């Protein structure tokens, strides 16, 4: 049949070839976004910066996301050649561009954690109800998590009051507000259950410190005597020393 | 059955063992423990059912927006045999790119509110029963917290009564900045509005009732 057609028309019959595939701009752009986010998760994981955003309970999502997004990037790249590519719309291009902004900010900005600025904004949260029961507070070494729980629960408050006069050893960052006396500062530490969005603050007032020795955001170790007074907890400083910011700056209950 | 799917969508973040357990841990040692745990479970279920009932038997086409990612260059690709593993990862990438934009928008708004809005502005209304419930519901929507951890934040607002805290715990997992952005991107406008309004009204009324009955 084909031969007959060739004979009449003079045309040459070829076996039907697959249409050529070309790069789709939209899929390539999507691949770039996916790749950027995959790179971000690898970056967070390899540099240990996931501790700045997640609690130790949830930081496993970072390597999992890195692996999945890398696979998705490869999968998308492998399908980025199509038979009829359409140009990418300007709106889509803007959206893809905006989706890369957080990646750029995290990778290229100075690594920061929640600090005294945020502590002031979260004054209403002062204290946190975390996984420390009255029995936890009443025995063993006192931690800032115990203190935070004692500031919000009546049972915890009573249990904490019984520990008055005991020696404590806390690490946190310095917060100095406008009304803070010169020989005092607030020692604060964030408590993060899932990620920094749910951060609440554990805070004690440290008294009898050398005026002007420490400034906002300085990380310090305070050894002293604790005096819980209702919902406020005071630590009479015996020794205050500057320390490096811990690898895990937030506490996980 | 869209109404069942909507009920499931709203109930899942509230009615699960992890969330109930975290609520218990957050409020243990307080006189309102069982009001909060039981109230969150029952009110969450009632609100989800109420929204599903109002949505009724609308069809999929009446609920969902067309997905531009599926329309784009897709039909021509159907004829091309692809390995299943590649289809999986292409689908994964498409979902990330489609949902990611809405999550990004919602998370940006929530982060801005968390950073610049002092929570002390709320404490002034803590003693007003009706307004405090509304304020805590609005705060829950603004903060966009994970339902597994929001009970710890709610419990920290010791100035507020159980009705306001319950409003925070029930409304937040159903309607927050990230979810509203996702609803707006996935569902038709009327449906998204219905979900937000019915969930808000049902939560508000339920939380007030709990406050009167058990507060």
How does the helix and strand content of chain A classify structurally?
alpha+beta
Q: What integer value in Å does the Rg of chain A equal? A: 29 Å
Taking all Cα atoms into account, the compactness measure Rg of chain B is 19 Å
Q: Give the SSE string of chain A.
A: HEHHEHHHHHEEEEE
Largest interface between protein chains, with number of residues from each side: A-B, 56 and 51 residues
Order of helices and strands of chain B: HHHHHHHHHHHH
Shape of chain B: globular
Total beta strands of chain B = 0
Distance between the termini of chain B: 38 Å
Oligomer: heterodimer
Can you put this structure into words, describing what you see?
The complex is a heterodimer of chains A (253) and B (215). In chain A, 37% of the residues lie in helices and 20% in strands. With 253 residues, chain A is an alpha+beta fold. Chain A folds into two domains: 86 residues, no CATH class; 127 residues, OB fold (Dihydrolipoamide Acetyltransferase, E2P) (Beta Barrel). In chain A, the strands form two sheets. Chain A has a five-stranded mixed β-barrel. Chain A has a two-stranded antiparallel sheet with strand order 1-2. The longest helix of chain A is centred in the N-terminal third of the chain and has 23 residues. The N terminus of chain A is likely disordered. Chain B has 215 residues and is mainly alpha-helical. Chain B has one domain. The model of chain B has no long low-confidence stretch (mean pLDDT 85). The interface between A and B is large, with 56 and 51 residues.
List keywords for this structure.
heterodimer, A: 253 residues, alpha+beta, OB fold (Dihydrolipoamide Acetyltransferase, E2P), 2 domains, 5-stranded mixed β-barrel, two-stranded antiparallel ribbon, 7 strands, 20% strand, elongated, disordered N terminus, B: 215 residues, mainly alpha, globular
């Amino acid at each position: 049949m084909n031969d007959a057609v060739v004979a009449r028309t003079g045309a040459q019959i070829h076996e039907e070839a697959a249409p050529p595939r070309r790069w789709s701009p939209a899929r390539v752009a999507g691949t770039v976004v996916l790749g950027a986010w995959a790179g971000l998760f690898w970056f967070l994981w390899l540099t240990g910066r996931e501790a700045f955003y997640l609690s130790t309970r949830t930081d496993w999502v970072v390597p999992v996301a890195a692996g999945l997004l890398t696979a998705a990037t490869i999968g998308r790249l492998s399908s980025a050649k199509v038979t009829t590519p359409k140009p990418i719309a300007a709106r889509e291009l803007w959206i893809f561009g905006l989706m890369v902004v957080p990646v750029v900010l995290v990778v290229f900005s100075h690594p920061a954690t929640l600090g005294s600025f945020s502590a002031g904004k979260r004054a209403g949260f002062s204290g946190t109800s975390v996984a420390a029961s009255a029995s936890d507070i009443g025995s063993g070494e006192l931690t800032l998590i115990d203190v935070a729980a004692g500031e919000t629960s009546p049972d915890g408050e009573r249990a904490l009051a019984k520990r008055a006069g005991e020696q404590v050893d806390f690490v946190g960052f310095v917060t100095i507000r406008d009304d803070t006396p010169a020989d005092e500062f607030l020692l604060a530490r964030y408590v993060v259950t899932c990620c920094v969005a749910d951060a609440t603050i554990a805070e004690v007032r440290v008294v009898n410190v050398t005026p002007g020795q420490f400034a906002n955001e300085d990380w310090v170790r305070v050894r002293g005597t604790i005096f819980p007074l209702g919902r406020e907890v005071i630590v009479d400083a015996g020794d205050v020393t500057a320390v490096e910011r811990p690898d895990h700056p937030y506490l996980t209950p | 059955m869209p109404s069942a799917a909507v009920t499931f969508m709203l109930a899942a973040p509230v009615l699960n063992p992890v969330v109930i357990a975290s609520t218990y841990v957050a409020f243990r040692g307080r006189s309102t423990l069982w009001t909060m745990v039981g109230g969150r479970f029952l009110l969450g279920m009632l609100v989800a059912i109420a929204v599903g009932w109002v949505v009724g038997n609308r069809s999929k086409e009446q609920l969902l927006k067309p997905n531009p990612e599926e329309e784009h260059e897709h039909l021509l690709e159907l004829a091309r045999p692809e390995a299943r593993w590649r289809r999986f990862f292409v689908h994964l990438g498409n979902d990330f790119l489609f949902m990611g934009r809405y999550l990004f928008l919602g998370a940006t708004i929530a982060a801005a509110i968390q950073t610049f809005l002092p929570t002390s502005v709320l404490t002034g209304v803590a003693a007003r029963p009706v307004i405090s419930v509304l304020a805590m519901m609005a705060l829950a929507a603004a903060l966009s917290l994970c339902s597994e951890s929001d009970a710890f934040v709610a419990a920290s607002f010791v100035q507020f009564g159980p009705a306001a805290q319950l409003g925070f715990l029930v409304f937040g997992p159903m309607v927050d900045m990230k979810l509203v952005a996702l609803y707006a991107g996935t569902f038709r406008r009327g449906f998204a509005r219905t979900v937000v309004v019915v969930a808000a009204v049902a939560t508000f009324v339920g939380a007030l009732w709990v406050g009167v009955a058990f507060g």
